[in-house]
């Protein structure tokens, strides 16, 4: 979905990531009301590692970095707590995307299976008339299977089990993060918007986009929605 | 040829490692204070936020950490360890986690200190923030308060993992290579949290003493982060098995020290005594032992005998108070032995009913049914109850009141239990799943299914059933109004009757003479 007058990003929707893009897949089975919290927990944990403080460039080409605060979030429907970056803007953006995903999962044609993807990319400016290229360098995919539970006892067990599963997922994420594999180089001032999302006022995550797919009961993916969550009114 | 580290780089690196160690301790201890942590992001660098992360510095913690480090830095063979332990209000303590900041010899000479190492240390701290919320001790620490507190201890030197019990797990938070070695941050955490029930854990005096004792009698205001004794009555936390609430603690205690086999044997030994009084009495013990709750078994199981319960009021013929008490004893046993290991307070057994009692009555039930002759032989419990559900209600309704009055089980000295067993059975329905899910080597978990807990048999829930039973409508013949009416009528008609009898007095006299 490309709005008019916006810079188009590369590739058709759902295209495979570039060859040296790191891809990680996580799978969770949750009850309907747990979808939101589970997705937020994973996405926030990833973004915690992929956000820095705001850069302040100084004259000599050096820069200083702002401070990233963190806060604990308790889940209501899962026996789980996670840490997220203290940024209301970022939280709002994630909640919006996860909310849409949740609604799509609930919608008709879905048997409760879908996946949400968080992709980090870099922009490579091209000359006119070519549009800028978006080169993904890390892709996180969370596959979700929504289960229906019959009674309160099962729900209680589900609360605990999903909490334990999410703990495992957090450990997996941290393990990947600490491999210290490719990260974009720290950009100069002119290049910073090609690497980081500078639209937020308190933190600076790497450029990212969130998309999701819902699998219908036939097992084919019927909806691919690209949502752009950066203000890429970077439209020059 | 190896490029040696420049002195500036070396100084920077040492400083980074030192502050990294201090911040690591702060993150770990703050994550165990029992409160939600919240710090603000700031777009303008303040210059005092190491690693570009807003991590508060609690002065006492910094002081202790510096004391432990004593001017040294983590190096090969010299690790900085933060030990997190739990201490109950009774003084028992247990190590929960050991967080280790270690250095090994693997060097990365190429790496840039001021930039890459610094950023990677920052990433590692973020990972630490995430991982500290994921180990079992986090949830325990969020619930600390009056029953237990979480303590920390910092030491420097060799890592000591022996206090974590068997089968502890490790999670690696991350590593950062530096020109002088690779920094590794990991956590070893205990998974066997069952010490409280067995109280076998020996106290190991900490080497450096307990740093901060959070245990106080009343909660401190939350503005003072070092005294997080805020009691959180959180939801039952089944995932962490001894999630320490009163009921859970007592529950595990009672369960482990009263294995079902003891109760069964006491039951069996009792039965021969009952046999002598006839088959009706066979129903009697079954009634009592058929479940947790005295009232229910009467109604559900006995009836199959067509007289299972009635024997109770007519019991005096066979003896008695003594008999009644004896019959009650095994069930008393069920109730009380479940609570014995604890201090057998009412409230404890009450709130405990879910798991503490779950195994034994079920076993008892099975035992009895297997041994009984007659209607119940080899019938599964459900069938038995199903077949006989209708009968007792009508028969027993008026007698219930008497039963309960006489029945020491229903009105035992600790009478609150009669209320709670209801909740207990409801609870056990809910928690039997989780309890069976938590298999622990120290406990024998038995899935408790109260005989009539399934609602596909009767379309009413246990609570409704119990309440209806407790408050049956009174028989019309016994109602006072009607009785009073009939008596009034009797009194009214009395003079007439007397008059008639007087008239016939001669006939009566003649009749009497014929008798003599």
Automatic annotation (TrEMBL), chain A:
Coiled coil: none
GO terms under biological process: autophagosome assembly
Pfam family, one: ATG101
UniProt entry keywords in alphabetical sequence: Autophagy
Primary residence: other
GO molecular function terms listed in the Swiss-Prot or TrEMBL record: protein kinase binding
Entry GO CC: Atg1/ULK1 kinase complex; phagophore assembly site
Annotated localization: Preautophagosomal structure
Family assignment from sequence similarity: Belongs to the ATG101 family.
UniProt-recorded name of the protein: Autophagy-related protein 101
Organism: Pipra filicauda
TrEMBL record, chain B:
GO biological process: mitophagy; piecemeal microautophagy of the nucleus; protein localization to phagophore assembly site; regulation of autophagy; regulation of cell population proliferation
Record-annotated Autophagy-related protein 13 N-terminal domain positions: 89-195
Example of a GO cellular component annotation carried by this entry: phagophore assembly site
Origin: domain of life: Eukaryota
Cytoplasm in keyword set: yes
Biased composition, class Low complexity, residue ranges: 424-437
UniProt-listed InterPro entries: ATG13 (IPR040182), Atg13_N (IPR018731), HORMA_dom_sf (IPR036570)
Localization in the cell: Cytoplasm, Cytosol; Preautophagosomal structure
Keyword Amino-acid biosynthesis attached: no
Keywords: Autophagy, Cytoplasm
Chain residue ranges for the region called Disordered: 298-358, 404-438
Gene3D superfamilies xrefs: HORMA domain
Pfam families: ATG13
Compositionally biased intervals (Polar residues): 339-355
PANTHER family: AUTOPHAGY-RELATED PROTEIN 13, PTHR13430
Annotated family: Belongs to the ATG13 family. Metazoan subfamily.
Protein name: Autophagy-related protein 13
The species this protein was found in: Pipra filicauda
């Amino acid at each position: 979905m490309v709005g008019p007058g916006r810079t188009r990003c590369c590739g058709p929707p759902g295209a495979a990531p570039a060859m040296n893009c790191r891809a990680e897949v996580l799978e969770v089975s949750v009850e309907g009301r747990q979808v939101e919290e589970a997705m937020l927990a994973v996405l926030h944990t990833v973004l915690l590692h992929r956000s820095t403080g705001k850069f302040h460039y100084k004259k000599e080409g050096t820069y200083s970095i702002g401070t990233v605060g963190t806060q604990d979030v308790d889940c209501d429907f899962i026996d789980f707590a996670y840490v997220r970056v203290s940024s209301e803007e970022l939280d709002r953006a994630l909640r919006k995307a996860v909310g849409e995903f949740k609604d799509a999962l609930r919608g008709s044609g879905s048997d409760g299976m879908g996946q949400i993807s968080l992709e980090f990319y870099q922009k490579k400016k091209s000359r006119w008339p070519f549009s800028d290229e978006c080169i993904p360098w890390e892709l996180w995919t969370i596959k979700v299977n929504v289960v229906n539970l019959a009674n309160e006892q099962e729900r209680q067990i589900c609360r605990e089990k999903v909490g334990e599963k999410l703990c495992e997922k957090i450990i997996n994420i941290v393990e990947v993060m600490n491999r210290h594999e490719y990260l974009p180089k720290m950009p100069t001032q002119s290049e910073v918007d090609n690497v980081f999302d500078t639209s937020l006022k308190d933190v600076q995550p790497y450029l990212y986009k969130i998309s999701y797919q819902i699998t219908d009961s036939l097992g084919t993916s019927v909806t691919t929605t690209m949502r752009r969550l950066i203000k890429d009114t970077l439209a020059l | 040829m190896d490029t040696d580290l420049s002195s500036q780089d070396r100084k920077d690196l040492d400083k980074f490692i030192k502050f990294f160690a201090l911040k690591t301790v702060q993150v770990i201890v703050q994550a165990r204070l029992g409160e939600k942590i919240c710090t603000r992001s700031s777009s303008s660098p303040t210059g005092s936020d190491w690693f570009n992360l807003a991590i508060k510095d609690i002065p006492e913690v910094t002081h202790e950490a510096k004391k432990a480090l004593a001017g040294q830095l983590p190096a090969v063979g010299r690790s900085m360890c933060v030990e997190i332990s739990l201490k109950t209000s009774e003084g028992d303590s247990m190590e929960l986690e050991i967080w280790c900041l270690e250095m090994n010899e693997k060097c990365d000479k190429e790496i840039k200190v001021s930039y890459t190492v610094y950023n990677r240390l920052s990433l590692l701290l973020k990972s630490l923030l995430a991982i500290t919320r994921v180990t079992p001790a986090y949830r325990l620490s969020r619930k600390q308060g009056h029953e237990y507190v979480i303590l920390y201890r910092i030491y420097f030197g060799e890592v000591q993992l022996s206090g974590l019990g068997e089968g502890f797990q490790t999670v690696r938070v991350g590593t950062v290579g530096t020109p002088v070695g690779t920094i590794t941050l990991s956590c070893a955490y205990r998974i066997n949290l069952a010490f409280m029930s067995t109280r076998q854990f020996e106290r190991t005096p900490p080497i450096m003493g307990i740093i901060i004792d959070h245990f106080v009698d009343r909660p401190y205001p939350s503005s003072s982060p070092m005294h997080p004794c805020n009691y959180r009555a959180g939801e039952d936390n089944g995932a962490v098995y001894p999630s320490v609430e009163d009921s859970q603690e007592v529950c595990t205690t009672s369960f482990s020290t009263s294995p079902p086999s003891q109760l069964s044997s006491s039951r069996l030994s009792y039965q021969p005594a009952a046999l002598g009084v006839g088959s009706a009495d066979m129903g009697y013990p079954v009634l009592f032992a058929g479940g947790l709750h005295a009232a229910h078994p009467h109604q559900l199981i006995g009836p199959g005998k067509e007289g299972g319960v009635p024997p109770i009021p007519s019991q005096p013929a066979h003896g008695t108070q003594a008999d009644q008490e004896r019959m009650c004893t095994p069930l008393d046993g069920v109730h009380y032995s479940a609570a014995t290991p604890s201090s057998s307070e009412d409230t404890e057994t009450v709130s405990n009913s879910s798991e503490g009692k779950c195994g034994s009555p079920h076993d008892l039930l099975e035992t009895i049914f297997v041994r009984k002759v007659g209607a119940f032989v080899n019938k599964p419990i459900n069938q038995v109850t199903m077949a006989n559900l209708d009968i007792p209600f009508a028969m027993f309704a008026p007698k219930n009141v008497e039963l309960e009055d006489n029945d020491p089980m229903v009105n035992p000295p600790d009478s609150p239990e009669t209320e709670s067993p209801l909740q207990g059975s409801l609870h056990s329905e809910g928690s039997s799943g989780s309890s069976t899910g938590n298999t622990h080597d120290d406990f024998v978990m038995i899935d408790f299914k109260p005989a009539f807990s399934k609602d596909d048999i009767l379309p009413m829930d246990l609570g409704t059933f119990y309440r209806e039973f407790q408050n049956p409508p009174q028989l019309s013949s016994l109602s006072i109004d009607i009785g009073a009416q009939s008596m009034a009528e009797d009194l009214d008609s009395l003079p007439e009757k007397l008059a008639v009898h007087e008239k016939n007095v001669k006939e009566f006299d003649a009749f009497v003479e014929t008798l003599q």
